[in-house]
Amino acid sequence: MRDLKAWAEIVNRRLVEIPAVIPKGRYAIGEMPWLLSQSMRYSLSAGGKRLRPSMLLAAVELLGGDVEYALDYACAVEMIHTYSLIHDDLPGMDNDTLRRGRPTNHVVFGEGQAILAGDGLLNCAFETMLAAAVKKPERALDALLAIREIATGAGVTGMIAGQVMDLYCERNQSQDIRALEYIQRNKTACMFIYPLRAAARLCCADEKSLDALTRYGSAFGLLFQATDDLLDVTGDQENMGKTLGKDTESGKLTCVSAYGIEGTRALVKKLHSEAIEALNIFGEKAAFFAGLVNDMVNREK
Amino acid sequence: MRDLKAWAEIVNRRLVEIPAVIPKGRYAIGEMPWLLSQSMRYSLSAGGKRLRPSMLLAAVELLGGDVEYALDYACAVEMIHTYSLIHDDLPGMDNDTLRRGRPTNHVVFGEGQAILAGDGLLNCAFETMLAAAVKKPERALDALLAIREIATGAGVTGMIAGQVMDLYCERNQSQDIRALEYIQRNKTACMFIYPLRAAARLCCADEKSLDALTRYGSAFGLLFQATDDLLDVTGDQENMGKTLGKDTESGKLTCVSAYGIEGTRALVKKLHSEAIEALNIFGEKAAFFAGLVNDMVNREK
C-alpha cells in the first residue's frame, strides 16, 4: 500500500508531463505563452502535500479502479486547489506575500498575470480532465459524472461559495458561527468531498461507497481546517511555510475564535471519530485513509 | 429565421433560469451566497449583444440540431465571456471603471468579490454544461467533445493565452505585429471559433461543416476585433457604452496602431470575404451568419 508521499510523487511526475502546461513556441497558434506556463508552474510546483489528488487516487485504488486513468483527474484537482491559493493570496483578497515558504504568485509575476495564472489553472483543470475523458469514449458517461463532481466541489455552491462567505465575514468582522460552519464546509471540505466522489464515479462505485466517501471527505475536510486553525495559534512558522498568527491578529473567524483552543481540540476528536466510522464498510483496505486522519490529529504543518 | 435579437432574447431568458445562479438561502449547505449570485448576475445582465451564444445556437439550427438542448451550452459561453470581462477590467489588469455603460463589477462589489464573481462564472459555465450533459446519457460522448471545444477556446492555448500576451505587450509597450496577430486570434477569435465548433459537436456534424464553421469563426472574430479597434478611434462613446480612445492614449497595440486606419479598413474587407466564402457549403441556410458579417462591417457599437 502506497503512503501519501508515494502518491504525491506519482502526482508530481504527471503534473509536469501534462501537455497543456508545456509551451512550445512563442507566438505559435494553439500554443501557450511561456509566461503563462511559467506562472502556472511556479505555483503548481511550490511543493504542497498533494493531499487532494493523492486521496482521489487512493480512493480509486480502494474501489478497485484504474489508477492510471484517474491520474489526470487527480492532477486537475491539484490545479484547482492551486488556482484557489493564487487568487486567495491576491492583494484584493487576503494580500498574502508568503505561501508554501515562497513569495506568492503575484509578488513574482505581478497582480494581472497572477489573476490569469489562476484562471489558466482552473480552465486547464477542465481541459485536462476532458482530454483524458475523450480517450475512453466507452466510458464517456462516467467521465461526465466524475468531472461534474469536481466542478460542483470547486464551484458556486462549493469552494467558491465558501470563499465568498469568508471574504464577506472578514470584511465585516463577523463572528457568526453559522457562517463559520458554512465557510469551512464549502471553502475547505468540498475540495476533499467531491474529488473522493469523483473517484467513486470513475469506478462506477455503488451508492454505499459513494456515501461513505462523502462522509469521510466531509469529516476529513473539517478536521483539516480545525487543525489548520489550531496551528495558526500553536504552530511553528518555519514548519508551516506561511505567515502564522495572522488570523488572530486580523480578528478572523476561525474554529479557535469560535470555540477556543480546548473547544477546537474537542471538535478535532469528534471529527476524527466520524472519519474513522465512515471507513467501516471498507475494512482493512481503507488503512491509508485511517492513517491520514490519525496523522492529521498530530500534524505539525 | 431568427435574427440576433431573437436569439439573444432566448439566451437572456435561460440565463436567469439556470438553477446554479439562483440562491435559495443564506447559509444553506449546497447553496450559493446571495452576494455571489448578485455579483455574477450584475455582470451577466449588463446587456451585451449575446453574440457568442447566439452564434452557437444559430449554428445548431443551421446544422439541424436540437436548439433547446444546446441552450445551456450557449449560456455557458456567455458566462465565460462575462467572466473574462470582469477579470479584464480589474485594477491589476486594464483598470476599467465603465463597461456596457455601467460601473464595472469591482467598482460595485469590490476587487476581491469581483475576482470571485469571475471565478464563479467560469466554474459555473462548466457546472451548467455538465448538468445539461448528464441529462442525456446516450449522448455523453458528444457532450464531452462539445464541452472540450469550449474549454479549449477559453483556455490556456486560447482566450487566456491571448489575455496573457495582451497584458505582457501592454506592460512592455510592444508593437510587435506577430504578437498582435497572436492576441487577436487567441483573445478574441477563439471565443467565436470554439463555440461554433461546440455546436458542430452537439450536432455530430461532418468534418467539412466543422472546418467551415472554424474558418468562419476565425474570420468573424478577427473582423470583430478589427472593427472594435477602428471604433475605439472613430466611434461614439455613448453608443459604445465604454470609455473610448483609451487604446490610442495608452499606446496599446491594436490593428489601427499596426496597420493604420486605411490598412485596418482593407483588413476588414479581406476578413469579410473570407467569412462569406467559408459559408458557401451551407448555401441559403447560412443567411444569419452572412448577415452578421455584413452588419459587422457597418457596426457602430
Description:
Two copies of one chain form a homodimer. By secondary structure, the first copy, chain A, is an all-alpha fold. Chain A has a single domain (4-297), classed as Farnesyl Diphosphate Synthase (Orthogonal Bundle), CATH 1.10.600. Helices cover 70% and strands 1% of the residues of chain A. Chain A has helices at residues 4-15, 34-44, 51-62, 67-89, 105-109, 111-134, 140-154, 159-171, 177-202, 207-234, 237-240, 246-249, 255-278, 287-297, and strands spanning 98-99, 102-103. Chain A has a two-stranded antiparallel ribbon. In chain A, α4 (67-89) runs antiparallel to α6 and α9 (177-202) packs across α10 (207-234). The longest helix of chain A is centred in the last third of the chain and has 28 residues, at 207-234. The two termini of chain A are 24 Å apart. Chains A and B meet through α2, α6, α7, α8 and α9 of A and α2, α6, α7, α8 and α9 of B.
So what's the overall shape of chain A?
globular
The oligomeric status of these chains comes to homodimer
**The CATH fourth-level homologous superfamily of chain A:** Farnesyl Diphosphate Synthase
- The CATH topology of chain A is Farnesyl Diphosphate Synthase
Structural class of chain A: mainly alpha
Indicate the mean pLDDT of chain A.
92
Low-confidence stretches of chain A: none
Order of helices and strands of chain A: HHHHEEHHHHHHHHHH
Query: Major beta sheet of chain A, specifics?
Result: 2 strands, antiparallel
Q: Strand order of the main beta sheet of chain A, please?
A: 1-2
- Portion in strands of chain A: under 5%
Q: Give me the CATH architecture of chain A, please.
A: Orthogonal Bundle
Number of helices of chain A: 14
